[in-house]
Design the sequence.
């Protein structure tokens, strides 16, 4: 039985990846932080699965990571844990650096010292492209991060490449563009809009307050993206890949389509601008070129932009009707 170790298992991607690997017959170990109340909402369907084991630790605590790797001796390690909210990275830049940047080195050290045979996946991000140097962005596009989060991810990316080249580890970096789902945190714009529009439709809320509607993103479906992570670790050679849909849409388009999906005819009547959600430095346009992932991994997205908006709004309508 293959063994996988996932950091960030309680997050959006970690929960989908754990389900995907359990379905494939893996024994899955998930790193969780101790909290005063349990935070297992996204893993509630699998938490009692006989092949899932939760392991206590923290990306800031080297000992817990090294101990876990030594004990488990996993075939595959997916480092998905991070402070992942861009806006929060201006409020907590040092913590973001500790988790999102140095946390990667701690995981790599744990593998180097504890079980160097393990294959390592690092969750890199399109935020590394920031003020983009090239459209669309591909594996060779230079980075120009625009937030403490983006800067931390550039560090995580290069330390992964460096450990591959220095210590011959099977370490890969997936440069994933935005991917969303009903399990997305409520602070991210897609889930925030989908949830607010459902509540407005049901008469629970009047407006949705947003920042910059002109920002454009390449949005895909999270379930598709965790498959790409796994495929990267099944290759003969470690390499880095862009994972994206190749399409870009504005926040305004997301809002318009969400209103349409809920049967709200005038989107402007439910929207207010709130400068609190504007960013000190914005990433204006992201659009990825997934050619390499398509050719080498045989990966392709199964849900398009319209399908994603519809799926998210429908899920929120169902959840809000029940609550
Ligand atoms: P998410 O929902 O915010 O999940 C983050 C996970 O990291 C949670 O399980 C969280 O645990 C855990 N975590 C945070 N700090 C930790 C620490 N110090 N020690 C241990 N665990 C810690 O993020 P996501 O959307 O699933 O994204 C997964 C990864 O992909 C992240 O690294 C993110 O930066 C990256 N990424 C995401 C996207 C995207 O569009 N979703 C795109 C590119 C890259 P708690 O539940 O305890 O908070
Ligand atoms: O913002 C604009 C905002 O917070 C998207 C993370 O998973 O993807 C994510 O980062 C855009 C930005 O995601 C609001 O200014 C307008 O331009 O949903 P977001 P993000 O910053 O793109 C990357 C790939 C990651 O790696 C990250 O971990 O939407 N926007 N109004 C708003 N954004 C938010 N959150 N809230 C608003 O009210």
Sequence:
């Amino acid at each position: 039985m293959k063994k996988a170790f996932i950091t960030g298992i309680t997050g959006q991607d970690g929960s989908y990846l754990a389900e995907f690997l359990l379905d494939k017959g893996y024994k899955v170990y998930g790193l969780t932080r101790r909290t005063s109340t349990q935070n297992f909402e996204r893993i509630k369907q699998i938490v009692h699965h006989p092949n899932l084991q939760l392991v206590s630790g923290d990306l800031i605590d080297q000992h817990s990571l090294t101990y876990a790797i030594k004990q488990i001796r996993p075939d595959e390690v997916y480092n998905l844990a991070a402070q992942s909210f861009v806006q929060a990275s201006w409020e907590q830049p040092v913590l973001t650096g500790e988790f999102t940047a140095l946390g990667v080195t701690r995981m790599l050290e744990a593998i180097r010292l504890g079980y160097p045979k393990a294959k390592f996946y690092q969750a890199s991000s399109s935020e590394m492209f920031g003020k983009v140097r090239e459209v669309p962005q591909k594996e060779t596009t230079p980075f120009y991060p625009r937030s403490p989060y983006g800067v931390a991810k550039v560090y995580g990316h290069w330390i992964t490449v460096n450990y591959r080249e220095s210590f011959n580890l099977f370490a890969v970096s997936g440069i994933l563009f935005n991917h969303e789902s009903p399990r997305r945190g409520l602070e991210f714009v897609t889930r925030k809009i989908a949830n607010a529009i459902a509540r407005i439709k049901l008469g629970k809320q009047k407006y949705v307050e947003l920042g910059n509607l002109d920002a454009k993103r390449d949005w895909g479906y999270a379930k598709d993206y965790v498959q790409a992570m796994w495929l990267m670790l099944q290759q003969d050679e470690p390499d880095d890949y862009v994972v994206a849909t190749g399409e870009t849409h504005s926040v305004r388009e997301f809002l318009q389509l969400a209103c349409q999906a809920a049967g709200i005819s005038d989107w402007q009547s439910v929207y207010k601008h709130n400068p609190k959600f504007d960013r000190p430095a914005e990433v204006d346009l992201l659009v990825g070129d997934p050619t390499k992932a398509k050719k080498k991994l045989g990966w392709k997205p199964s849900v398009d932009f319209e399908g994603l908006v519809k799926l998210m709004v429908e899920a929120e309508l169902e959840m809000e009707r029940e609550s």
Notes: The first strand starts at residue 3 and ends at 7.
